User: What shape does this take?
Amino acid sequence: MKVIPIKPVPPTPPAPSPAEVTEVEQTLFEVSKKIYPRALTGWFASWRWIMVWFTQMIFYGGAWLQWNGRQAVLFDLASRKFYIFGIVFWPQDFIYLALLLVISALSLFLFTAMAGRLFCGYACPQTVYTQIFLWIERKIEGDRGARMKLDEAGMSFNKFWRKAAKHTAWIALALWTGFTFVGYFTPIQLLGHEVSQLSLGPWESFWVLFYAFATYGNAGWMREQVCKYMCPYARFQSAMFDKDTLTITYDSARGEPRGARNKKADPAQLGLGSCVDCSICVQVCPTGIDIRKGLQYECIACAACVDACDQVMDKMGYEKGLIRYTSERVLAKGLSAVEEKKVLWQRVLRPRTMIYCGILLAIILASAFSLTVRSPLKVDVLRDRGLPRVTETGAVDNVYRLQIMNTEEKPHHFEIAVEGISGVTIVSDPKFEIPSATTKAIPVRVRVPFDHAQRGSNRISFTVRDVDNPNLSVTEKAVFLVPR
Assistant: This one.
């Protein structure tokens, strides 16, 4: 019989006393580190600056354009009129705002399905203003290395004046941005006069300061945190991506294994890929990600890493495109550069994108046609709440109020006609004038001989016609009451 030895159980150590317990504090959120994007030049960088100039010329310059003696683009909330060059939109034209939102959404779907986050990388206000604020920062504090040294150094006169100058420039630009934004809702020339006279109203002051604070905080301080944590687009972009969507991608098959080497060295003999592990792609990234780890939701598709990597490849004498715009399907096939371009363009125009294009084009054409044939005359007929009045001659009078809107920026002379009952006439003056872009209530008294209409309600119709242009007319139905 085999005897199995029993190992003694070690004694349980005594519980530590409260004085010996060490509390360990652990945060649930990663502490964000300040990102210092490095300045660079290149093809995509040039396009980003072109979009900065284009968008800001529209934003800052559009508020000062004049049209027919007024501001060309003005959203006059107090008067409930939106002026966009020669078109005046009223609350009744809300359908056009809905169409604009639909067109914007479909455009976003189309661009994302074709080439990922193009809007984020080139036209998003957060990206544009961050680019401008970074340019100011570089001009005052220097490029990446100089800014890092300046922040690490203790307070000195050099650091103080550079920081003060930077924030002064930021605040000035933010205030001008807030002023321009409010200038689209209050005539900007009037707004400028009020600012110069220090007589700005409370609401205008609030919105100028609020928008300035938002610009200063988002573009100067939060920057990539807005894209990573506040923007919802980063979270649902994957629903619009597929294997044929163009995204900024690192070619790991070509780049790995990465490693530093001499320019004259042969990477094949060293067993290395094309990536020299210089981390330039990380240094230029405005959100601080490493694209070599694959596509990440923080990537805003600005293509800064593409420009940076291509410059390194040029210096090393390697082929460009280690980091490039390509699709998951093409990258998996390992095609040559010529074959890749051919396949990419074929897959960009795939059924999904063509459907988006077709729907988008149809809505744009329908909206343009609707604006073209849109009548500048709108009429609403409201019957007076009072009872019908029987005159001394035995006729019956009903009183109406015609709410007539002239949406054009020129006055019109109109004439009212009524029909539907034999002998029906208008007792009040049927002719009147409506000034440009104005709504006017016109009281109208309608008379019918007592024996020409049945007791109770009778159908009639009002026709409002332009005296100078008979083709411009609107007909609305109404009810004429006869006492029983």
Summary: The two ends are 122 Å apart (CA to CA).
